[in-house]
Amino acid sequence: MSLKIASIDDEPYISDQIFELITQNFKDFTIVGSAASVSKGLELITNETPDLLFLDIQIEEGTGFDLIEQLDVIDFQIIFVTGYENKAIQAIRVGALDYILKPIEPKELINAVNKAVETNSQNFYKDSNTVALDYYQNNTQKTIVLKTLDAIHLVKIKDIVYCKSEGNYTTFYLLTGDHIMISRPLKHAVELLPDPLFVRCHRSYIVNVNHVDRIVRSGSVFMKNQEEILISSVRKDEVIKEIMNKMK
User: Fold this and answer.
1) Would you say 12 and 36 are in contact if contact means Cβ atoms under 8 Å apart?
2) Is the dihedral of CA 4, 54, 99, 93 positive or negative?
3) Helix, coil or strand: residue 4
4) Staple 34 to which of 15, 89, 162, 232, CB 3.0 to 4.6 Å?
5) Are residues 14 and 120 in the same domain?
């Protein structure tokens, strides 16, 4: 498969490194150009119509999120590129966007590109980018994006009743009665959800305190939908205290 590749990064050597790795490992790909700013990036995308874009978070004139916000249509794959900036990484995660870290590891880049090639182009970037941008700009986190094998779900945080671990999978149970399973462990869900609302009450469960109806001191939580969730026997007193404090 032949793809057109572009990079938008305010550190030119990063784009050069990406292009070198692409040229060495993907013989049919075409490099169409690089840019360092929001305005030049938009011009590059308009003129060259890339199939795959490597996009830095911090670029001249703004951020990669700002650039995406200005696009009317996104008909290409995006791999974000960022340093070890916790806030940027968390923003990318709540938007369920793909990324690689600087300094770039060749194997990580190759895996990310292969994943992009194998993924059918799904124009979910506008919603995902809005979620990521809100988080990055310190706005109240209202939604997260959940990717499953066959769909992209934009989920309101207030509608998440609880999450349940099922091995390397996590199921999100919603107020509507629906549930969404993602192929990530419960630890990932903990990282996505805002701390003031959610408590990990058991190694297999996270609960939304706004949906807790009552706590049974023998060792369980009843949600408002009457689902019973176990409390860790080892941390029982600590968990009960944490839930009650957050319910105030």
Assistant:
1) yes
2) negative
3) strand
4) 15
5) yes
